[in-house]
Amino acid sequence: AYLTVSIEPLPPVVVGDAVTLKCNFKTDGKMREIVWYRVTDGGTIKQKIFTFDAMFSTNFSHMENYRKREDLVYQSTVRLPEVRISDNGPYECHVGIYDRATREKVVLASGNIFLNVMAPPTSISVLAADTPAPFSRYQAQNFTLVCVVSGGKPAPLVYFKRDGEPIEATPLPEPPAGAGSWAPRNLLHRDLDDTKVPKSLAAEGEVGGGRLTATADPPRGLAAERDPVTETIPETVVSREFPRWVHVAEPIYYFRHTHAPVSDGTVEARATLTWTLNPQIDNEALFSCEVKHPALSMPMQSEVTLVAPKGPKIMMTPTRARVGDTVRILVQGFQNEVFPEPLFTWTRVGSRLLDGSAEHDGKELVLERVPAELNGSMYRCTAQNPLGSTDTHTRLIVFENPNIPRGTEDSNGSLTGHCGFRLVLALTLTVILELT
């Protein structure tokens, strides 16, 4: 007797699809059994998913004439109505027939197939690395956008666009160890008026549109601080909120793509885009991260617009503060959508904060048990991100508290009893001195 087994090949399928595995076999013998296996753990474990035993079934008893030799073609199918990522892997179809020479002997043959289950990404997001963080107004700094794509299988193709145009970026196999590992770009770290460029710089290139076009090949790379000793400072410095960087070339983008397997069989992909930020030209620039994947009919996209903060909205509670109250001053939002997340710094105009510190970081400033001396005090909230900064002031008005008699508050805002803690302490010390 002879037996041939084959499984019809399948293209990659997408999660949620209905899939039918087809096992074709041809024989001139009598059917014994058909068994389907799902193979896991690299082939060490075989899990039965379908069994047909001819000994306990009469389905085929009328289809074969044992005395007449002829070829019989069969097909066994297994249907997976809604495939999942966990269904990904190899499958085997085992067929057994009785040998024509002796009924005690069984001839076995098998076929195998690998079911490739794809999954489209489930989420995509763009965020700014290392924010919120202080930003120097007078030093060009590197800026990195991170695109995180989760839930896909296989790993997707991720790329960035600026204002709808694909970005040509230099690929990076490994993340930078530090600024010293990058070739420095020839940048000025001071705010220059276009008409006040030092002659030494004018000799190297032409001034136009706030940029220099160097005739010599400048070092190319991300921003690194120049030696302040060798930097020429112009006589006239124009004060702006952020300097208009003088670039010797168009921005150079650096791109890095990594992916890590997840326990559910999918992949998390991370793509980073790094360049020397120029607040003058990057403010209100639209950056998008796009994803191509074989399980997607069209690219998946997430976009952000780089915007400096404008017009913080401040809320103070309680609205009518009294002596001894705890006052909270909170930034509720801005007049615009801000990205990246700003860093908030609180200061008291002309003095230190109530706790004695010079400044406080965070969206909220809390003043515990305010004393009457804070009445009329002015507080400044500075909100800044790498694109710019803005200041908002609010004045604290403290009203008298009828529950606290006047004169029962010390200079630190601590409330005392009618006798006064300091007076009791002084009298106690006097008595002790007299006794001695």
UniProtKB/TrEMBL annotation:
Keyword Phosphoprotein: no
Localisation per UniProt entry: Postsynaptic cell membrane
Domain (Ig-like) ranges: 16-109, 312-397
Record protein name field: Immunoglobulin superfamily member 21
Top-rank taxon, per record: Eukaryota
GO cellular component, one term: side of membrane
The entry's keywords: Cell membrane, Disulfide bond, Glycoprotein, GPI-anchor, Immunoglobulin domain, Lipoprotein, Membrane, Postsynaptic cell membrane, Repeat, Signal, Synapse
Transmembrane segments: none
Keyword Lipoprotein: yes
GO BP terms: heterophilic cell-cell adhesion via plasma membrane cell adhesion molecules; homophilic cell adhesion via plasma membrane adhesion molecules
Role noted for this protein: Involved in synaptic inhibition in the brain. Selectively regulates inhibitory presynaptic differentiation through interacting with presynaptic NRXN2.
UniProt source species: Ciccaba nigrolineata
Listed Pfam families: V-set
Gene3D superfamilies the record matches: Immunoglobulins
Sequence segments annotated as region (Disordered): 201-224
Subunit structure: Interacts (Ig-like 1 domain) with NRXN2 (via Laminin G-like 1 domain) in a trans-interaction manner.
Bilayer topology term: Lipid-anchor; GPI-anchor
InterPro entries hit by this protein: Ig-like_dom, Ig-like_dom_sf, Ig-like_fold, Ig_sub, Ig_V-set, Nectin/Nectin-like
